[in-house]
Batch of 2 targets.
Target 1
Amino acid sequence: MISNEAVIQKGQQYVMNTYGRFPVALVQGKGARVWDADGKEYLDLTSGLAVCGLGHAHAELLEALHKQAETLWHCSNLYWIEPQVELAAKLCQYSGLDKAFFANSGAEANEAAIKLVRKYWSRQGKPGCEIIVFNNSFHGRTLGALTATGQEKYHRGFTPLVPGFKYADFNDLDSVKALLGDNTGAIIVEPVQGEGGVNPADPGFMKGLRELCDRHGLLLVLDEVQCGMGRTGQVFAYQHYGIEPDAVTLAKSLGGGFPIGALLAREEVARAFAPGDHASTFGGNPLACAVAGRVIDIIVNSGVLENVARMGGYLHQQVTALVAGRDDVVQVRGLGLMLGVEFTREVKPLVDLCLQKGLLLISAGPRVLRFLPPYTITGEELDAALDILKTALKEWANE
Ligand SMILES: Cc1ncc(COP(=O)(O)O)c(C=O)c1O
């Protein structure tokens, strides 16, 4: 019989030890709820870590997946793929950018962006350009994306890294200016840092970055792998800031749970790639693109963004009230349904307490409790989650 224990035992024997996993094996999901192998139910306020934006087992996504599975699962990118073309057109329509490249994950989307930046400047006679990235950022685990990630703990043991990256401080324009040089080619930034602790960019900072890029002829690349595709209440997080990027990377919620990543770019920048410059066997495959195409339709046309804004406001307000008066809370911050509570101490025991009580939450760095509910979450579901959190917070205080 399947059970948490049986799955965990076999996993410990056969699966590489790269994740600090919770002692639970999830086997089923529906909407904002998931069930483990022992039949226990949880409210999932992680959405599979910002992936299942429309909740688990969304009926329309299942329909899109089944329909495509019965037609064509895979064909090489040496042929045109109709669902990929349709998805590219939709992403360009909603982003205002001109061209898309498809990958399978966030890290790969960022690798594509890094290569595009390098190729763009090589063609302009500036090979090996430098890229400015940010402390506390997270861009993925492949070597280029890892180098772009401004957190030393992820670098340890994996040097030498990729040359040509410089690290500025997030929300500090002067620290960016101090790094500018003749060989700078681009700035890569998350509009809301996710793994780094749920840090939204200040409006003046994002505008300032755009102005700096315009003044110095640099490319502004936004990593919206976590904060994009509706998470903040706009399709793209940069739409809150009134700026336009030169390129954007996406993954996570783009496929609603089906693996896909994307790089979008302005025509002039995208043109740097020629056949043979970049590729991915599975990138932009028919199944992923059919599902992602439907994800966008639902996000844009079904009142989903309005729900994110409404429920995001409600969650922010309720969580602020819940932690009011606690002397171990530093700040509640976020955008839309991407919320973090920074504590003065490590939140892992609190996350564990919530799990035991049937609520999935996650940390962002050691001291930030992170909420990433599905965009379709209801007020009743949030209330139920907050009741559990309230009890867990009390127990945590008494520990
Ligand atoms: C902002 C950001 N970029 C990139 C990545 C890497 O994505 P993936 O794990 O799909 O490679 C993540 C993952 O958490 C992320 O949050």
Target 2
Amino acid sequence: MILIGGSTGQLGKEVIAQLLRRNAKGLFAVLARDPEKAKPYADQGIEVRYGDYDRPSELGPAFAGIDRFLFISTMSQNRGEQQRHVVDAARASGVRHVAYTGLAIRDIATSGVRELMESHFETEDRIRASGMRWTFLRNTMYAEAIAQIAGPKAPAEGVFLPGGTGRVPYALRREMGEAAANMLLQEGHEGKTYTLTGPSSWSYADIVAALSRRAGRPLVYQDIPEAALADGLRAAGLPEFVIWLTLGTIRDIRDGQYDLPSRDLATLLGKEPQSLDEMLGAVFA
Ligand SMILES: NC(=O)c1ccc[n+]([C@@H]2O[C@H](COP(=O)([O-])OP(=O)(O)OC[C@H]3O[C@@H](n4cnc5c(N)ncnc54)[C@H](OP(=O)(O)O)[C@@H]3O)[C@@H](O)[C@H]2O)c1
């Protein structure tokens, strides 16, 4: 039996949609903390198991009889602590194989968001040391993040961000979910670390060139100072954590931290991932 963690989140929903398309109903259960959010799964006859990573004493029953666990990372500020609970509960319950969705980054020690993102690597270390079998899916930045960071007006107005000429091998969340679903239904992935990134990397100038093609007129990419973006985010009233995460992420883009193109996503998909134009079409639809 396979268990899908983070099932009510955006990536989890994509994984489950792909599992259902592959007629895998009955082969997997979903883990959720909120019965209301999990109701659509229960209504489809999918087994729902309940567990909150902040309540470790309740996690044991969720893992009973589970052979393979897709551990989709959380986004909480206490992620490191939450994920230690999950790994320990999975091991104690006899889970055989954990597939963890971490982060594809060049050097976590110099990342602008190290304090949050190093927990991905601590979790990998804990899984490795646990004796359970493992697969690490080190995820690239979702193409959806282009729209989140550049803003919904980018297709009409261009991009104004301190990203320099840094490049990212973006991929659609849907395709990351499809790759994870394929991996879960196949054998031979144990002990493997996949750099789940697109085959080509793209800068903000590349993105604006593609948006200009879509718009049929030239748009601009302006590489603004980081302080100007910080002022704009504060003026918009965003919480300090979001500002810190946004600035640190864009600094990492500028520094080439995510520039790790790979064939691993294409291999797990069994096809070419979507092109930049296709991804932009999807995220700005
Ligand atoms: N590569 C990228 O560009 C990128 C971008 C954003 C995030 N990420 C990472 O990828 C992960 C998945 O992305 P996503 O878009 O699917 O995120 P998401 O929609 O926020 O999904 C997170 C999932 O984790 C669950 N969760 C959070 N805290 C939990 C807890 N204490 N106990 C049990 N479940 C808990 C959530 O449950 P609820 O539905 O109940 O909240 C949800 O199902 C994120 O969490 C983050 O680590 C990567």
